[in-house]
Amino acid sequence: MQARGTPRLRRIQTISLALLVTAGVVNYVDRATLAVANPLIRQDMGLSLADMGVLLSAFLWAYAFSQLPAGALADRLGARLTLTVGLACWSLGQMLGGIVTSFGEFIGARVVLGIGEAPHFPTCARVSRDWFNIRQRGTATGIWNCASSLGTFVALPLLTFLMVSFGWRAMFVTMGCAGLLLAATVFLVFRNPREVALDEAERAFLSEGDAPDAAARVTWADWRRLFAFRTTWGMIIGYFGCIYMTWLYTAWLPSYLEIERHFTLSKTGIVGSIPFAFGVVGGVIGGRVVDMLIRRGVDPIRSRKIPMATSLVATAGFTAVAALTPSDAVAIACISASLFLVYLCSSSAWAMASVAAPAHCTASIGSMQNFGGYIGGALAPLVTGYIVQGTGHFSVAFLVGAAVALVAAAGYWTLIQEPIPAATAGGRALGGLRAAE
Fold first, then answer.
1. pLDDT of 102 higher than 60
2. Is domain 7-436 annotated with CATH 3.40.50.10260?
3. Given phi > 0 = left and psi -120 to 50 = alpha, else beta, which region is 369?
């Protein structure tokens, strides 16, 4: 068996990753449209800052609570249909944001955006498991996961150009149309493994290391039993901290630079993008680290758990230094290191989804992980805002974030021990909660 698979497999892998990265970038650019157009939207629609807070959180809560059914849907319908429908749904939500006439309609558009985006990353985890050998999945995950930081990095200049040139409503509609075109491309180009006439060697290459008795489609019982294992809860708790830290910086970094560090608006636009460039690098390297550990004989679970836990511990340290240092340069360097490590952790966490549960439950457990993450993501802007309003400074909010990262790292290290076994022929878990102890 070839170490990298056949030329046909490598071609499919390249096309799949290109589609996932492109869709991921569009995903994060679409999320940023409201933040970029914030002042103009408030002026045109007569909305308050509190109203804008509701609009921002409407997406996050809809996204978080849509994770649980989205993962099961991806496992049941397959990646091709789920990616297409998700892209089309969130693109329609994006277009609706450009034609709304009231606050209530805008909330509805943001909810549609959140529901549509929810299946994307769990489905990407499914693609990693479907189309990559177990020794390739970390790198593949790192590549598509870096789209989140890359999308944030390119969103500000791209969306500002569209908004200044054509207006904020046209910016929303333009991005929605681009997403619909991409949805059609995904449906026409991407294929699930069962839709390709793979030979025996190719199937053996892709399924190496997976349970041989995994069911073809996830059932309600399969989905529900995942909650009986400590590994699932470790992934949920750990990713809560990872995404809490991500959104602490994503939501508040510009305000932190302007309020705490007294940067001008133009300087903030330049300096504020630097940490997210480090995030892109961290996302790719995270996947490489996982595969490197696998090649050195580390078992699949520990090859993910080690970088996940250690990166969050280091993130806590750098965030604490950023909170306490009087130096602007040191603070930016520490924030850049923090985002590098947070995205390294995120890539490792999504790589964990491809080995932590039976193959037919990959997107399901990935969505459970992302549910926990985006509860943290929804809370981070809210908690930080209250702390800054009460204290007048960001230092306490950063220290709270550091503490959250440490608790999350402990959850990863203590709760994730073994992969979740496949159910027996009778459908019962092998040892239930004890099987992951």
1. yes
2. no
3. alpha
